[in-house]
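cron nightly-structures :: item 1 of 1
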Amino acid sequence: MHNPFTYVAIPCEDFQRALAFYEAVTGGRVRVNAAAPFPMAYFTGDDGRDVGHLFKLPNFRVSAD
């Protein structure tokens, strides 16, 4: 996967579902951060640096707004 973005933060409602999706899309270049106080994972770029993260915050709801 090339670095298609500089850094991106992607919120989600269902962390496990989103994690599985992004692992498939990136070829497994997602690293879960077990130390975070909420479900969180980092996307890793070609150079090994973090290029984004996926997260689920308490009471977060996706909306059309």
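cron nightly-structures :: done
The chain has a mean pLDDT of 88.
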